[in-house]
Design brief:
heterodimer; A: 244 residues; alpha/beta; Rossmann fold; six-stranded mixed β-sheet; four-stranded antiparallel β-sheet; 8 helices; B: 808 residues; alpha+beta; 4 domains; eleven-stranded mixed β-sheet; seven-stranded mixed β-sheet; 51% helix; 17% strand; MacB_PCD (chain B); Duplicated orphan permease (chain B); transmembrane helix (chain B); Macrolide_Exporter_MacB (chain B); cell membrane (chain B)
Chain lengths: 244, 808
């Protein structure tokens, strides 16, 4: 992991990232030459039609998948060619995930679900420290009263708030959010979006994939993907230029 | 029809995506069903198939028993004149024949082989409808007292001894100084009824008249072993009535003829009829039921394991099944698709099973023909194929049903909109735990038992016999002339033959002794000196015997030349008898009076030896041999030997009428004697490996299934930042409790076995079992670790998105 000479304010920097899915018969270019930079405190939304590469881009951003080409830095650390375990370490310390289907573990209580990233952390924390931090995060999403419930005892909106608390617990560099309201009714969806907005106001960097234009508009930077490439917006063009 | 073709095509495509699954199912079920088909066919042949003779249900052997004064049966044998009398005078059988089994030496061939003989009256051939490959059966010309010197030979004898000579019917063969013209060769399709000895294959048939020397034919006081009256019953009376009718008549004539023998006072005869079927089957019912139980057990274990694999596969297919359900497939249609898949797999398995069964028949016919009846008739028959079809259909249905039961049809569509609430179809956690526990308990027990039997067999194989066998051969001679000479007449003959053999350059040493592997004569003695009864096992040897065999003399001294020459009453005994006679001091010099007015002095003590299959150490005694003894031990020089033909030539130079009754290398005899141990070693090794394989597959199936349904959760943990090692440890930890409980159960089962069969198992239970226990448990732990890791490998060694996507 080499340090790159980038702005210390830059959380994410992608240069010329592409992703090709190969089968015996054909190659699919899921992403083509993506250049992207996300700074501290940004609220970025990525939207576009189905199959445009949104989820693939988010997977690569979250080190869940590897790009076929290009360079990728998180907080100045080159994460393009990490081993599986190195990638796990970065995901644990720098990235917070929020999935469309919440991905809470049914057997674990709300508390243990939220505490999970801390237990996988390289730096071992004391039980007391874990408890304090988990409670802090649950308070942030207003779920302190459901600490010992099991996920399947909660509503969809509540589950997603727990998922947000879990994403925040390890103080990640960025929150990656995949269609957070996709499995929720509009009221619960709005509540979840409120929570995200508040987090961003308090300084959390967020990158969100959504196909809902209403929620995409809530982000301050809106990227549109089409056929694996970013459609330029004035704002992003300026930023990319500045970075180069 | 089109729909069925479509289903088959779909099923095949779906199966080929998981070749590992096909291989696991087809090999496991192929081997297991192969064993099942083999045993089922054996059971059919033994218990249900009629014997291959015309009107076989009417074929009986008449057995005559001599009953002592106290009512106990002394023997079940005819006297020679009694047998002939019954044969000539009986009225209940429409056709009857006599047969006498024996061994004899074919002196007209250079090799002088010892052959299995059958001396028969002509009806033996028509009763059994014996098919001929060449020439004719015995006819009226060979009936009793015709003394027509002709012979019929078996197909194998024709091939092996005469190389299938086309001109066989013009050849002659000589036995005991008589030359016989070959008039027929029996077809290789003939199956000999095993009414006397299991697995016996008669090689040459001669007319009944040539079976014994004339003196025995007149004696009403003597009995003849290996002779039988057989016949086709032609009577409306019951077997009991017939027995009651023939007994007094036979008894009367016998009593009339043995009246002067005081020893036989108050003895009576009893006649009994035994059907061919009951004689052939003997006491084999138990063996076949035991085999059936064993093989059904194996099928149950294998099926349970394969069911696990099917369940695990359904877990993988959950998503595609949900889509089919969403498209309108009803539960019956889903079941049909599963049925076609399991049907294809079972068809493939049964094809392998049929091949395995045929291999099983071959093994049974070559190695167990003297243990199990009628194995010569084993081949795939209509029963085997019918069983195969029923097995395929029922197992295909069973596996499809098990798979279908796993699908909760009503919740399938929820799978598509799963919100991570864990509402996809699952086998409950408890069921999975029970599966792991039973799997481990059964596997550990079976591996442990088989590993122990294997070790036991291996120990017997590797055990030191206490004597050399290398380059040593045993030779026993008999006289083949018409009139057997006096015993002492053999002394000069044997001395000369010995001299001829030792003069051969291949021979290093020769001893006028019998083989350490041949029988020691049992002698129950009444020790008048020590006033106690015990049984000794004695054999006659020369003074060079112990040196030749490398059997150490541990006390006293060897026989002197004078002992041999004068036939002194001196013994050399083994350690076991020495310890019995004189536990605290030397046994040398002790006198034994076995109750025959002779006193034998102990001259030396030798180390114990172990014959194959010997369990306890008998009291062995070696006495000095005399020069008339017809046994020799030959030690050849390194890498040299004399063939049977060469030896025949040497002996013939000395004496024309002396022929080889037995000539075999000690190493080969010992190997043959250890056949049971070898068979046990191989069988248990195969069974242990098979159990290990089945247990591995079963555990893999359950754990693979558990991992499949946790795929989504594992993906989430990976996304949060769990490292691979952490997840491997988590899965191991989650399963370790069930595995431990399984191991505890296996210990309980084993303790149960030890308590229930304490008497039989006492010899085996000791601290030496500890390494096997450790080995068994290590193997189970190893299987568990592998079964934990392999299914996880696909998830943790790829990009995390793979696990997460599949989770949806």
């Amino acid at each position: 992991m080499s340090q790159a000479t980038v702005n210390t304010n830059t959380k994410i920097k992608m240069t010329n990232i592409s992703k090709i899915f190969e089968t015996e018969e054909l190659e699919t270019h899921a992403l083509r030459s993506i250049d992207l930079e996300i700074n501290a405190g940004d609220y970025v939304s990525i939207s576009g039609p189905s199959g445009c590469g949104k989820s693939t881009l988010l997977s690569i951003l979250g080190l869940l998948d590897m790009p076929s080409d290009g360079e990728f830095y998180i907080e100045g650390v080159n994460v393009t060619d990490l081993s599986l375990d190195e990638a796990a370490e970065i995901r644990n310390s720098k990235i917070g995930f929020i999935f469309q289907s919440f991905n809470l573990i049914d057997e674990l209580s709300v508390f243990d679900n939220v505490a999970l990233p801390l237990r996988y952390s390289k730096e071992k924390m004391s039980e007391q420290a874990i408890k304090t931090r988990v409670n802090e995060c649950l308070a942030l999403v207003a779920m302190s009263h459901r600490v010992s419930h099991k996920p399947n005892q909660l509503s969809g909106g509540q589950q997603q708030r727990i998922a947000i608390a879990r994403a925040l617990v390890a103080n990640p560099a960025i929150l990656l959010v995949d269609e957070p309201t996709g499995n929720l009714d509009s009221k619960s969806g709005d509540q979840v979006m409120d929570v995200l907005e508040k987090l961003n106001e308090n300084g959390t960097t967020i990158c969100m994939v959504t196909h809902d234009p209403r929620y995409a508009d809530m982000a301050r930077t809106q990227l549109k993907l089409l056929d694996g490439a970013i459609l330029t917006t004035p704002d992003i063009v300026e930023r990319v230029k500045a970075a180069v | 029809m089109n729909y069925i073709m479509y289903l088959i095509k779909q099923a095949w495509q779906s199966l080929t995506k998981t070749p590992g699954f096909i291989v696991s199912v087809v090999t496991t079920m192929g081997f297991t069903l192969g064993a099942l088909l083999c045993v089922l066919t054996l059971a059919y042949v033994m218990l249900m198939k009629p014997l291959p003779y015309p009107e076989q249900e009417k074929l009986y052997r008449v057995v005559q028993s001599q009953i002592m004064q106290n009512g106990q049966v002394d023997n079940n044998l005819f006297t020679y004149p009694g047998l002939i009398h019954f044969y000539k005078n009986q009225t209940h059988f429409s056709e009857a024949a006599l047969i006498h089994y024996d061994d004899n030496i074919l002196t007209s061939l250079p090799k002088q082989p010892s052959l299995k003989m059958g001396y028969v009256t002509p009806k033996w051939f028509s009763l059994l409808d014996i098919p001929m490959a060449r020439g004719r059966q015995f006819e009226q010309t060979e009936q009793l007292d015709s003394h027509n010197p002709v012979a019929v030979i078996s197909f194998d004898t024709w091939q092996n001894e005469f190389n299938g000579d086309e001109d066989i019917l013009s050849q002659k063969i000589a036995f005991s100084g008589v030359s016989f013209s070959i008039v027929g060769v029996i077809s290789d399709t003939f199956i000999e009824p095993e009414i006397e000895q299991r697995g016996l294959k008669t090689q040459v048939w001669l007319p009944w008249d040539y079976n014994l020397d004339t003196s025995a034919k007149e004696s009403w006081g003597n009995i003849i072993p290996l002779a039988a009256f057989v016949g086709k019953l032609n009577s409306q009376q019951s077997i009991k009535q017939i027995e009651q009718e023939i007994t007094p008549a036979e008894n009367q004539i016998w009593r009339d003829n043995v009246g002067g023998v005081t020893f036989l006072n108050d003895w009576t005869l009893q006649m009994k009829l035994h059907s061919f079927n009951s004689l052939v089957l003997g006491g084999s019912h138990q063996v076949i039921y035991f085999l059936l139980a064993g093989v059904f057990g194996l099928v149950i274990i294998a099926s349970a394991n394969i069911a696990n694999l099917f369940i695990s596969r359904i877990a993988q297919q959950q998503h595609s099944l949900a889509i089919r359900a969403a498209m309108g497939a009803n539960s019956k249609q889903l079941f049909n698709a599963l049925l076609v898949e399991s049907g294809i797999l079972m068809l493939l398995s049964i094809c392998i099973a049929l091949v395995i069964a045929v291999c099983g028949f071959y093994i049974l016919q070559h190695y167990l023909s003297d243990v199990l009846p009628r194995v010569a008739e084993l081949r795939l028959n209509r029963f085997s194929f019918l069983s195969a079809i029923i097995i395929v259909m029922s197992l295909a249905y069973f596996f499809a049903k098990v798979s279908a039961k796993t699908i909760k049809y009503k919740t399938l569509n929820l799978t598509l909109q799963s919100s991570g609430k864990g509402n996809s179809a699952q086998v409950p956690k408890k069921t999975r735990q029970v599966l792991v526990i039973t799997q481990v308990a059964i596997a550990a027990t079976l591996i442990f038992v088989n590993a122990n039997l294997f070790k036991h067999a291996l120990d017997s194989l590797n055990e030191d016999a206490g004597f050399e066998t290398h380059n040593l051969s045993y030779l026993n001679l008999v006289y083949s002339g018409m009139n057997w000479p006096e015993y002492d007449a053999f002394s000069p003959i044997m001395t000369d033959i010995k001299a001829q053999i030792i003069s051969r350059p291949e021979v290093e040493m020769i001893s006028h002794s019998s083989s350490p592997l041949s029988r020691f004569w049992q002698w129950p003695i009444n020790d008048l000196v020590r006033k106690e009864r015990y049984t000794i096992f004695i054999k006659s040897i020369a003074d060079d015997y112990f040196e030749l065999l490398g059997q150490p003399l541990i006390d006293g001294e060897n026989f002197s030349t004078a002992d041999i020459k004068d036939g002194n009453n001196v013994w050399i005994i083994n350690e076991a008898l020495a310890n019995h006679l004189s536990p605290n001091a030397s046994a040398v010099g002790i006198n034994v009076n076995p109750g025959n007015d002779q006193v034998y002095s102990i001259k030396g003590v030798v180390k114990n030896i172990k014959q194959p299959n010997q369990i306890d150490q008998p009291f062995r005694v070696y006495g000095p041999s005399d020069l008339s003894q017809r046994s020799l031990l030959i030690k050849f020089k390194s890498n040299q030997a004399l063939s049977r033909e060469q030896l025949v030539e040497v002996i013939q130079q000395s004496h024309k009428s002396m022929v080889i009754e037995k000539y075999e290398s000690l190493s080969q005899t010992q190997d043959a004697g250890l056949f049971t141990q070898k068979a046990t070693a191989i069988t248990t090794a195969v069974l242990a490996s098979l159990t290990f394989l089945l247990a591995s597959l079963g555990l893999y199936g359950v754990m693979s299934y558990s991992t499949q349904i946790r795929r989504f959760e594992i993906g989430t943990r990976l996304a949060i930042g769990a490292k691979r090692k952490t997840l491997i440890l988590m899965i191991i930890k989650d399963n370790s409790q069930s595995v431990l409980i399984g191991l505890v159960f296996s210990i309980l089962i084993m303790l149960g076995l030890v308590i229930s069969f304490n008497n039989q198992l006492e010899r085996y239970v000791n601290w030496q079992l500890l390494p096997t226990v450790i080995l068994t448990f290590s193997l189970i732990v190893l299987i568990t670790l592998i079964a934990c890791y392999l299914p996880l490998r696909n998830l943790i060694n790829r990009s995390v998105i793979h696990a997460l996507r599949a989770g949806h």
